[in-house]
Task: inverse folding
């Protein structure tokens, strides 16, 4: 317990040094949004193609979610680590000291890891949330109901993301929610037209 | 061995951690009773800080290590007082 408290204290300290919170919030919202819209694409593709087997939808959805997660994790880690290293080298040139073994250096490395985890997990978890009706197919009368429930969950997730963005920007929550839902609706409509 | 009772250091530090955190960290060291930090110059990335430390038995090596850990660098040791009490420098005709 004291180890956990110590870890949390370190992360809190590193947040003030490396501004982790702000970047992590940004990546969370952006990538969860990407995750939901990508899965809407997968669902609509399967729906318009007439896929009735939920296993196919689950396996394509899972594979897509995992790919998004790996892409987010890897890409964000490499990018963030490179940017942080660049910043550290620049600061070192100003202070004329090697900052690698200082709190600032450690904060930079921890920031890259945390941001990568957020970037990788947020689209994966958002996509999995949307796919959950397909794991409980038995409670629905037909496969079409499962699709509609999943799409409904996707729009709800987008709305929740909008509320989150509205909250952090101290803006109108409903307005932000509406803005994010519109993206989902547009994606569904275009997919339907393509399917037609 | 004599005990260091006052240290005045000229340091260069990044903006983060702030001098509040620096003062907190240094004042918690054993043998230190008070810390005074003031900024006398600042630019975009770094700032110059004058650190005055007083105590019963100040360990310079530990102070230096803490300052390095916080990302700072000691430019110079501007004043040291050691012994049984703190005294100021004596005035001379040259002053």
Result:
């Amino acid at each position: 317990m004291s180890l956990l408290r110590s870890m949390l204290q370190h992360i809190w300290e590193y947040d003030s040094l490396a501004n982790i919170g702000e970047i992590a919030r940004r990546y969370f919202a952006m990538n969860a949004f990407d995750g939901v819209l990508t899965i809407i694409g997968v669902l609509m593709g399967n729906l318009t193609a007439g896929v009735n087997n939920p296993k196919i939808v689950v396996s394509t959805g899972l594979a897509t979610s995992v790919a998004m997660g790996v892409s987010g994790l890897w890409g964000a880690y490499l990018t963030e680590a490179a940017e942080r290293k660049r910043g550290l080298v620049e600061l070192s040139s100003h202070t004329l000291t090697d900052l690698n073994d200082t709190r600032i250096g450690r904060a930079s490395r921890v920031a890259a890891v945390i941001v990568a985890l957020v970037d990788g997990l947020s689209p994966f978890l958002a996509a999995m949330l949307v796919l959950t009706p397909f794991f409980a197919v038995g409670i629905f009368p037909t496969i079409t109901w499962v699709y509609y429930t999943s799409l409904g969950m996707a729009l709800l997730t987008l709305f929740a993301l909008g509320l989150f963005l509205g909250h952090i920007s101290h803006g109108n929550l409903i307005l932000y929610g509406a803005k994010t839902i519109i993206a989902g609706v547009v994606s569904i409509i275009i997919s339907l037209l393509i399917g037609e | 061995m004599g005990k260091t009772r006052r240290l005045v250091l000229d340091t260069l530090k990044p903006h983060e951690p702030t001098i509040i955190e620096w003062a907190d960290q240094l004042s918690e060291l054993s043998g230190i009773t008070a810390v005074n930090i003031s900024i006398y110059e600042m630019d975009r990335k770094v700032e110059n800080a004058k650190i005055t430390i007083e105590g019963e038995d100040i360990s310079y090596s530990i102070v230096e290590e803490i300052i390095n850990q916080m990302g700072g660098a000691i430019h110079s040791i501007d004043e040291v007082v050691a012994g049984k009490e703190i005294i100021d420098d004596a005035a001379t005709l040259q002053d």
